[in-house]
Amino acid sequence: MAHLLVTGGAGFIGSNFVHHVIDTTDHTVTVLDALTYAGNRASLAGIPDDRMRFVHGSIDDADLVDSLVADADAVVHYAAESHNDNSLNDPSPFVQTNLVGTFTLLEAVRRHKVRYHHISTDEVYGDLELDDPAKFTEATAYQPSSPYSSTKAGSDLLVRAWVRSFGVEATISNCSNNYGPYQHVEKFIPRQITNLLRGVRPRLYGTGLNVRDWIHAEDHSTAVMTILNAGRIGETYLIGADGEKSNIDVVRLLLRLMGHPEDDFDHVADRPGHDMRYAIDATKLRTELGWEPRFRDLEAGLTDTIDWYRTHEAWWAPAKDATEAKYAAQGQ
Ligand code: NAD
Ligand code: DAU
What we know:
This protein is of the alpha/beta class. It has helices at residues 12-24, 62-70, 84-89, 92-112, 147-166, 188-197, 217-230, 247-257, 283-289, 298-311, 313-329, and strands at residues 3-7, 28-33, 52-56, 74-77, 115-121, 170-175, 178-179, 203-205, 211-213, 215-216, 236-239, 244-246, 266-268. The longest helix is centred in the first third of the chain and has 21 residues, at 92-112.
C-alpha cells in the first residue's frame, strides 16, 4: 500500500486515474487541485474519505506543495491548463501552472526524495503530415506549436534536467488524445455530444481533415500505473492505442451513433496554427513494460461515452452555456 499525491485529480484524466487507483489498488490518495473552470469536485463523488483526501490549492503554492509532497510515497502530476484554444486567447495561466507549477513540484520532490511521474502530451512533438507514414516515438524532436504545447514541452524539459542534475527519481509519459467520462465540454468530443443532446449541430474547425490518435482515459490510467510500478527512472514512455481518425470521421460517427444524418454538421473558423496530425508509436511501452490497451474499438468506446453524457447532464450542464458563449465570440 502506498500514498499517492495526484495533482489535477478533479480534472478529466486525473479523476479517471483517481477512480482507477481506488478501484484497483489499496493505495490512498491525496488530490491537490485548484478547481479552476476545468476542475470539478463532483468528478470524485463516491470515493470514501478513508481512501482519498481532497486539498483545494494550487501547485504553485510552494509551502502547501512542500507539506503534501513530504507525506507522499509518489507524486503523479496531471494538473495543467490543458486547452489549446484557451492558450491562444490568454497564455498567461499556461506559463504559470504548466511551467512554474511543475517547477514548484520538482523542487519539493527533490527536497523530499519522492518518486515523481510527469503526465505530458504528444503535442510536444508538433504535428505530422497526413500522408507521412511516420509516427511519434520517444526519439522524435520537440517542436511544439501552441502556447499550451510549448509550456508542456518546457515542463518535460524541466523534469529531464531535474533527473540529470539533481537525481530526481522521475518518469515522463506523453499520451495522445483522450476520450471518456468526466471530460470538460470545451473539448472536441464532449462538445459535439452535448451539442447534439441539446439539438445543436456539431462544429468542425476548418476542413475537419486533421487527425487525432484517440485513446480511452481508462487505458491512459493503466499505462500510467504500469510506468509508475515498472518504468525505468529517467525514461520517457509514449502512450497511444493506434486510434488515428480524422475529426470529420469522428463527427460523422457521433452523428450516426446518436441517430442523425452523417452530414448534419457545420464547418466553422479554423484554429490558428492548427496541428494537422498526431500519431503515437507506443512500441517501447508495449515491449518493455508489457502494457496493452483494453479499449480497441472507438465506436464501442464512444457509445459508452455518449451514454455517460446522456445520463450525467447535471455534471456537464453548468459549464455548457459559458463554454459555448466563449466559442461564439471566436466564430467557432
Ligand atoms: P483538465 O483541464 O480536464 O484538468 C486539469 C485539472 O488541473 C483541473 O482539475 C484543474 O482544476 C487543475 N488545475 C489547473 N491549474 C491548477 C493549479 N495551478 N494547481 C492545481 N490544480 C490545477 O485536463 P486533462 O485533459 O485532464 O489533462 C490532464 C493532464 O493530462 C494535463 O497535464 C494534460 O497536459 C495531459 N494530457 C491530456 C490529454 C488529453 O487528451 N486531454 C492527452 C495527453 C496529456
Ligand atoms: O494530443 C493530446 C492533446 O489532446 C492534449 O495534450 C490536450 O490537453 C487536449 O486538449 C487535446 O488537444 P487537441 O487540441 O487535439 O483537443 P481538442 O479537443 O481541443 O480538439 C481535437 C480536435 O478537434 C482538434 O483538431 C480541433 C478540433 N475541434 C475542436 C473543437 C473543440 C473541432 O473541429 N471542433 C471543436 O468544436
